[in-house]
């Protein structure tokens, strides 16, 4: 077969391949390679080169896939480790913050006790105010009740004592209210946000 007829055959095959390629049809590589090599045996070096490249690509893909699997395994292990570390951290935080619990419980109990004292003092204030009102009412009615001078002095003295007692109880109520606010502040200060 002459060179020109071989070139003509190769051109025909090339044109056929191009037509098939542009037409969107897939070419059977093995059949096409045999046909090309039948017309141009020198093309074998490019087929060999392609096969070498294919092997390198397959090897590369295999290495890549192995590395990817290893990394994914490590990611799973690290996620597990992260979860364990978080659990340890939360346990540690709970243990550390509980160190203040006894003092906070003590302050809360003291707060309850002070509230109870305050209720008693407020009830005492109400009783003293009531007594002051009753004694004041008697003194205002002294003429109608025909109270003697000595009796008026006794009632005035009684009212003065009640007023002093009211002032004392009012101070105690104010002190208890202040103590309540301080206890609340202490409890708030000892609260740890994690």
Structural commentary:
The protein has 194 residues and is an all-alpha fold. Among the domains are: 1-39; 99-189. It is 88% helix and 0% strand. It has helices spanning 3-23, 29-39, 44-97, 101-140, 142-145, 149-189. Helix 1 runs antiparallel to helix 2 and helix 4 packs antiparallel against helix 6 (149-189). The radius of gyration is 52 Å and the shape is rod-shaped. The chain starts with a helix and ends in a 5-residue tail after the last helix. The relative contact order is 0.06. The model is unreliable at 1-6 (pLDDT under 50).
What keyword list fits this structure?
rod-shaped, mainly alpha, single chain, 194 residues
Quick overview of this protein structure:
The protein is mainly alpha-helical.
**With helices defined by DSSP (H or I, 4 residues minimum), what is the helix count?**
6
The proportion of residues forming helix, as a percent range, comes to: over 70%
Distance between the termini: 89 Å
Q: Give the H and E element order.
A: HHHHHH
CA-based shape? rod-shaped
* Overall pLDDT confidence: 86
Largest sheet: none
The proportion of residues in beta strands is under 5%
Q: What is the SS-derived class?
A: mainly alpha
Instruction: Tally the beta strands.
Output: 0
Calculate Rg over CA atoms: 52 Å
């Amino acid at each position: 077969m002459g060179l020109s007829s071989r070139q003509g055959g190769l051109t025909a095959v090339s044109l056929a391949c191009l037509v098939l390629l542009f037409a969107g049809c897939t070419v059977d590589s093995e059949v096409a390679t045999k046909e090309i090599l039948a017309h141009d045996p020198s093309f074998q070096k490019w087929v060999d080169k392609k096969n070498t490249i294919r092997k390198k690509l397959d090897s590369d893909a295999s290495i890549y896939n192995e590395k990817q699997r290893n990394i994914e395994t490590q990611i799973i292990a690290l996620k597990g480790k992260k979860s364990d570390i978080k659990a340890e951290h939360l346990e540690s935080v709970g243990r550390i913050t509980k160190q203040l619990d006894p003092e906070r419980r003590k302050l809360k109990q003291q707060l309850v006790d002070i509230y109870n004292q305050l209720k008693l003092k407020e009830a005492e204030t109400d009783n003293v105010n009531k007594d002051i009102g009753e004694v004041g009412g008697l003194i205002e009615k002294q003429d109608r009740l025909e109270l003697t001078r000595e009796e008026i002095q006794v009632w005035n003295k009684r009212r003065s004592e009640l007023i002093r007692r009211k002032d004392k109880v009012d101070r105690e109520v104010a002190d208890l209210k202040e103590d309540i606010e301080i206890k609340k502040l202490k409890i708030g200060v000892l609260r740890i946000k994690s």
